[in-house]
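Bit of a strange request maybe. I'm writing a small parser for structure token strings and I need a real example to test against, not something I typed by hand. Could someone generate the tokens for this chain?
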Amino acid sequence: MFPKGNLAVTRWVWRRMRKLFLLLSFLLSHAAHLEGKKDNQFIWKPGPWGRCTGDCGPGGIQSRALWCFHFEGWTSHLSNCDENNRPPKERSCFRVCDWHRDLFQWEVSDWHHCVLVPPALGQARPRATECVTAQHGLQRRTVRCVQKLNRTVAVNEICEHFAPQPPTEQACLIPCPRDCVVSEFSQWSRCSKGCGKQLQHRTRSAIAPPLYGGLQCPNLTESRACDAPISCPLGAEEYMFSLKVGPWSKCRLPLLKELNLSGRTVLDFNSDSKELVTFRHQSYKTHHHSKSCDIEIGYQTRQVWCTRSDGKNAMLSLCTQDSLPVTIQSCIMPKDCETTEWSSWSPCSKTCRSGSLSPGFRSRSRNVKHVAVGGGEDCPELLEKEACIVEGELLHSCPRYSWRTSEWKECQVSLLLEQQDPHWHVTGPVCGGGIQTREVYCAQSTPASTAQRAKEVSRPVEKTLCLGPAPSASQLCNIPCSTDCIVSSWSAWGLCIHENCHDPQGRKGFRMRQRHVLMESTGPAGHCPHLVESVPCEDPVCYQWLTSEGICIPDHGKCGPGHRILKAVCQNEQGEDVSGTLCPASPPPEQMVCEIPCRMDCVLSEWTEWSSCSQSCSNKNSDGKQTRSRTILALAGEGGKPCPPSQALQEYRSCNDHSCMQLYWETSAWGPCSEDTLVTALNATIGWNGEATCGVGIQMRRVFCVKSHVGQVMTKRCPESTRPETVRPCLLPCKKDCLVTAFSEWTPCPRLCQPGNATIKQSRYRIIIREAANGGQECPDTLFEERECEAVSLCPTYRWRPQKWSPCILVPESVRQGIMGTSETCGKGVQTRAVSCISGNNQSAEMTECLKQTNGMPPLVQECTVPCPDDCTFTAWSKFAPCSTNCETTRSRRRQLTGKSRKKEKCQDADLYPLVETEPCPCDVFTSHPYGNWSDCILPEGRREPQRGLRVQGDSKECGEGMRFRAIACSDKNGRPVDPTHCNSSGYIQEECVIPCPFDCKLSDWSSWGSCSSSCVGVRIRSKWLKEKPYNGGRPCPKLDLKNQVHEAVPCYSECNQYSWVVEHWSPCKIHNELRSLRCGGGMQSRKIRCVNAADGEGGAVDNSLCKQDEIPSETQSCSLLCPSECVMSEWGPWSKCPQSCDPHTTQRRTRHLLRPSLSSRTCAEDSQVRPCLLNENCFQFQYNLTEWSTCQLSENATCGQGIRTRLLSCVRSDGKPVSVDQCEQRNLEKPQRMSLHCLVECVVNCRLSGWTAWTECSQTCGHGGRMIRTRFIIMPTQGDGRPCPTELTQQKTCPVTPCYSWVLSNWSACKLEGGDCGEGVQIRSLSCVVHNGSMSHWTVPVDNALCGEMPFQDSILKQPCSVPCPGDCHLTEWSEWSTCELTCIDGRSFETMGRQSRSRTFIIQSFENQDSCPQQVVETRPCTGGKCYHYTWKASLWNNNERTVWCQRSDGINVTGGCSPQARPAAIRQCNPACRKPFSYCTQGGVCGCEKGYTEIMRANGFLDYCMKVPGSEDKKADVKNLAGKNRPVNSKIHDIFKGWSLQPLDPDGRVKIWVYGVSGGGFLIMIFLVCTSYLVCKKPKPHQSTPPQQKPLTLAYDGDLDM
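Reply from user aminoacidic:
Good idea to test on real output. This should exercise your parser:
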């Protein structure tokens, strides 16, 4: 111990030392840290992993950044960090794609059991007694992401991509501990009438097991001695004696020391038995009868004793029977199954590295060396599997597979057309919508490193290896339709010009006419006709003078001869002004002679314009002509120049004098694009249509000169200037070689052996990925190869070969004589045999092979009997006698007694030892009855391609006549099911059926197009009409009008003013005046009109109705001939042009000039006129007009696909009149850009189905209810208004009803004791073959065992030990009935789906002396469904003498023990609290203390009894009445205590109130009444009408019960 001072110093030193020590430790650690940093100053720091990129599935790649950091925090170059410690920069990952949703899902296990939540830190767990209803718990479950296909585990991130992870924990309630619940006791068993001590018992059964730590079940049995036993006289007790046999001992071999050479008796202290065993000297060798398993035969013994009904043993003589049971028998020494050592593990099934986390498997096996005999332990598992994971970076990655497709094949329109019209056949080029197909196959994904070997790795593999949806194998396509050009009508013939005006040669030229393209051609075969025609002519002129004449100017005076001024302009063939030097001749004179009529001269009009040529060309019959005319305006006067004759008023000239044989260039179609050595090859490029091209080539075509109506002529006849080109450049399409996949792997030959010797073939195939095109290498002919499998081994058949049974082996005589004292060599023994496994060629084989192919092993041991002299012996059974043809007969077989048995009386008993066996004869009469429903209507199969298994196009049959089937069940005469072939070869009854064919709506073909509704731009219409309505689900009709027609209208062009009115010249004016003397004045003139077709080159007249009637010219008009004296003016000239704006403030003007002055002085008429420019009167505006887009127009040969929508352009005058487009073009109006658009008409595609698969195997191997199914798949779904896909994609057919044969175990026999009355015995049951219809609940009929095949060799299921209790033994009862199914509930609500039910066995005590040897009671519980919630409540009877019965009752009314809460149990005995200890007090029925008779209770203020006071005069009746009344009026005992210190005592010593107290009380009462009344009168207000005052309630005073008021 330290002194205090020293202790303080020590503490101070310790604090200082501790600080110094901490400082030193810190410095040392920092120095070590710096030293470590000095050694490794740079460290790697990785960034976070990036997103998973790359291929879908496990082939994704994740990367991250890496930095090299100095330990002080700054980054450095990567080379400074240790390369050996470099973290990985990339790792494989699983890239999730949308289609993975169908492949992965969360797999959730069931919730595990609810467990108590661990108490929080510092909190104690609540005790069970504190539990009211339940306690809080927690339950967990397993959640993992799995592949749907094979349930292998994947990383959770995949499933989290589509759905959040389900919770793995949830709160739960654990019910309070519940004790075992048992039923009420049964009635006591009856006591027998005999004498002596007897017992009676009663039992109860378990209803619910103990749960959650509750108490175990109480005793289910109660026993008691019978009341008033009758004592038996001495020695006259009535007992029952029973011969009891004990269990057989274990099988054992005699020990060498037991075999005493001198034959003396020895005691075996090593055996289980306590018997005295005597052995004679006899050799006892172990018998070896099996090479595969040494079977040792031993012996076993059992005890036999006599037992009394009170459980005590008695002398064996009291139980003696005719013969004692056998106490020794032969047995087989138990030997466990012996196996070889485990083989080595097989390689792991997972031999590559994949992104999946699922492990592989490996297995090992072992063989059986010896099977178990004599009840030895059975063979263990011979095959063991375990998961394995091969680790290591050297493991190559697993191959990944993806869907591949070939190129689309050519578009086939015929497939769609055949759908719409099965009778359709090719009549010409087809176009429009069609279907194209491609091959879809699965191939190994190509790694980037081996991309150059793509052809090799594209080898097709099994389609099941590819995940995700397969690409479509067919699609709609379109073959573009070709339409020809729409061209205008021909222009007028041009002038005769040289072929080349820049280099004119010779005197031969051409006249030409043109037409232009109104709408371009479309498609590859679209054609435009020739646009230029020419005819040869003479004296061609490329340039000519065009003169314009001025007015006539008189040379002298105002009339007479004069001259006109001519203005000449040189123009080319196109009407353009050019230099005058180009015109070949000299320019015309500048003046031309003319004459102005004088006053009396005849006046003529100017010449009209030349009319149009009457014909477009000249033929043999007529030439073309043009005319012009002039009219007489005024007659000549006297002396004036006369008018010319009428012939001189008209002039004619020939026109279009060329031949009608026009010449034009015709071209052939462009040839294919070919290489041109003259053209420099360009690099491969992308062509106009988006396809890869390989350089530039040329296309060529032939050009030839054609003469109309004649044919091809010499080329030089056509003008070279208009010759079309014969060569044009083109983009060369690349040569495409045929591309095929590599051959698939050969289909595997079977690894396992085959049972039959059928030829097995293996095949392989390859797929054309791309067809050859443009001169590329053609595809190979062989796409499918087949060969026979080599070295396919036949499965060896193995069978058991049993040897003959050995002789029956008994217990050795020495052992038998030593135990039993007899050496009789007869009775039960065992015999053995060897069983070996051999192959089909009788070679020995491993036992395991036979065990695999058979149900078990034939028995190696069987019981046998060596007949004793007293036994009955028989001959073997004879064969059964033959049967007659009658099915009602029987057949029999016989045997006979042999030897001394013929004379023994017991052997004559035919019931015990029958000598004749009879059985009914087999009968071949069978009856059939239909079973199940009719199958679907099944159509005959279409033919299949041998290689691919697909139905040939056009051969699929979806409707028509078929067959439907119904299974039959066949039974024999006794009603036993037999094979249906006994009744019918196919097992079906058949009948014809019809699937109605759908008929589509049928319309007629399109009518021809009608004519264009109006000139320039109009509408033309065509129509279809209904021929047949649809039915049976056919394609519906389009919308029809009231006439059941459908129309199609498209805009159309027609030549503007194609039909126009043509007028001839006016006739001379005819004067109305009948007087011939007057030849001037008003008159009439006429002209001829006709309607002509401008498109007709001949200009022939057509019906007048074709021309517009509102524009018909007048045929007559009034006219006048001016008289000689009148002024003559020329005809009006044309109006000047108005501006395009048609401004009304502007004017237009026309003029005329004086031709002849009048004789008088009168002025002539005006020579000019002016009018405003008014819109739609004399001034017009023009604009382009667009029609609406037409409907999508298809070619005549197309029914759907790509078409064209058009709109047409016309020119419309502001007053709405359509005019030629030239009017708008002349005004340079802006044209719309697009006149046509591509469009798509949806193809009506009927649903296309695959062929039916083969019928599946029957869903059941035998019996009723089996189904066979076949399916088909949708290859192309319905599109548009096509026929919908049928809902029936599967068909079912009931299987033939074949009988089911099963081995059935019989019930256990009664316990056989083999000679004893009670004790240990054996139960046996047998296997029998029965026939049934597939449901074992259905009645079963025994049949011959051979129909069930091999019998399973399992002795253990045919024999079991049992026991029969002896009188007086304590034994178990039979099982009670299963209790009702009960759920565990809280507040009436269950938290589990499965309930439980219980049953129990209890013991019965027959003698108290044996109760120590009683077995334990047994309670069994099993899960059940359909349980209910029960609640348990306490019930109690009425009180009787402060006692009552309390019991627990379940909600269904059953009285039970257990289930109710012990804390809530009501009291069964009523006691006062506090106890009644006052004199003369006792506990009343109400649970309170009261006083005995003659005493009254004096109560405290808290209600408890204070004391009991004697009632005076309680002997008479009045006192009794008062006493009783007083009992009902408890007195407050505190009053007595208050008055204890007073001099005037208000109470007598006996507790009675004194008289003066009553007087004082009465006086005080009167004073109180007076005060109340006075207060009332003073305070009350006066009322006019007094009512009767309400009656006052009387006031009462408390009293002690001694006096009446």
